[in-house]
């Protein structure tokens, strides 16, 4: 299932399941069937309620609890408690970063971790803020986002995938000229720098998360095109490594790193500017589209 957080004309956010051409209003369907299911995506994650929602949709769904997909507005799935980013997790990106930025040429021996604050999260179609007082080097990074389900503390790699609820897309927006003292907080943590969505694909629907195509377009032009098979540290290793020292809680997100093709690595370098539109796509999840706007 692809779970979404959507609204229609009345503006209230609702839990939905995106199907081919429509979105099922889960709360409306549950009410009709006197079933009890969580009414937000985050609660589905926290209560590990994938099966309950799936059971609700197993019988034919009446049309009056659905909306045509093109008539709903999708929002960020929810605001995660924390977002752990993984830097330099694709070989070619390590190489382009060493050429263009000040990072090391050698492949990292352990995952390179950083955090993005929850205040950076925006949803589909929401604006990425371009503040010309703060950056002239705004960049994109299409990433597979892992949504944690069950609490993970000191979890071995062999059991790590049991703690994954599902997968989404995160665009790790980065102001390359705001890396301070080597740290990425202000470079990657500013408001709107974590577009997240368009929904969360449950883990049962992604049996092999290391074989997903990733791509990113700016104004319709392809800038990144790769596969999650090229991750240096795979998801089980990342969860084991992070949870060795930091408890991962339901709803937390791991942004698993970006492949080559970022603006900093291009020759000449290319950056995002007001008026641009960025589309980050991960196979079997969807496309996360965001415009860039001037906020000076
Ligand atoms: Mg990144």
Features:
12-stranded mixed sheet; 5-stranded mixed sheet; alpha+beta; 19 strands; 296 residues; binds magnesium ion; globular
Can you tell me about this structure?
The protein has helices at about 25-30, 40-45, 50-55, 90-100, 155-160, 185-190, 235-245; strands at about 1-5, 15-20, 20-25, 65-70, 75, 85, 110-115, 120, 130, 140, 140-150, 165-170, 175, 195-200, 215-220, 220-225, 255, 275-280, 285-295. The protein is α+β, with helices and mostly antiparallel strands. The strands form 3 sheets. Strands 1, 2, 3, 4, 5, 6, 7, 8, 11, 12, 14 and 17 form a 12-stranded mixed β-sheet that branches. It is globular. The mean pLDDT is about 95. The site of magnesium ion has 8 residues, from strand 6.
Q: In a nutshell, what does this entry contain?
A:
16% of the residues lie in helices and 32% in strands.
Series of H and E elements: EEEHHHEEEHEEEEEHEEHEEEHEEE
Q: How would the global form be characterised?
A: globular
- Compute the separation of the termini in Å: 40 Å
- Uncertain parts: none
Strand content: 25-35%
The structure class reads alpha+beta
Q: How large is the count of helical segments?
A: 7
Mean pLDDT rating: 96
DSSP, total strands: 19
Largest sheet properties = 12 strands, mixed
Give the helix level as a range of percent: 10-25%
Ligands present: magnesium ion
């Amino acid at each position: 299932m692809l779970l979404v957080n959507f609204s229609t004309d009345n503006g209230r956010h609702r839990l939905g399941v995106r199907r081919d051409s429509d979105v099922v209003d889960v709360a409306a369907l549950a009410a009709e069937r006197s079933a009890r299911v969580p009414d937000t995506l985050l609660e589905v994650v926290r209560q590990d309620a994938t099966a309950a929602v799936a059971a609700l949709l197993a019988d034919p769904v009446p049309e009056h609890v659905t909306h045509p997909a093109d008539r709903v507005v999708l929002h960020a799935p929810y605001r995660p408690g924390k977002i752990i980013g993984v830097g330099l997790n694709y070989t070619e990106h390590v190489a382009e970063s060493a050429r263009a930025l000040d990072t090391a040429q050698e492949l990292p021996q352990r995952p390179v971790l950083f955090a993005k604050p929850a205040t950076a999260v925006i949803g589909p179609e929401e604006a990425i803020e371009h503040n010309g007082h703060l950056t002239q080097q705004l960049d994109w990074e299409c990433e597979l986002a892992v949504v944690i389900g069950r609490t993970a503390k000191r979890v071995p790699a062999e059991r790590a995938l049991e703690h994954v609820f599902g997968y989404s897309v995160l665009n790790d927006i980065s102001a390359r000229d705001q890396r301070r003292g080597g740290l990425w907080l202000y470079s990657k943590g500013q408001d709107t720098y974590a577009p997240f969505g368009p929904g969360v694909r449950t883990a049962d629907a992604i049996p092999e998360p290391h074989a997903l195509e990733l791509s990113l377009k700016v104004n319709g032009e392809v800038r990144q095109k790769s596969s999650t098979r090229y991750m240096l540290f795979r998801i089980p290793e990342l969860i084991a490594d992070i949870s060795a020292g930091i408890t991962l809680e339901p709803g937390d997100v791991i942004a698993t790193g970006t492949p080559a093709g970022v603006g900093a690595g291009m020759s000449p370098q290319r950056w995002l500017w007001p008026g641009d539109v960025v589309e980050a796509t991960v196979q079997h999840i969807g496309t996360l589209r965001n415009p860039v706007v001037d906020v000076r």
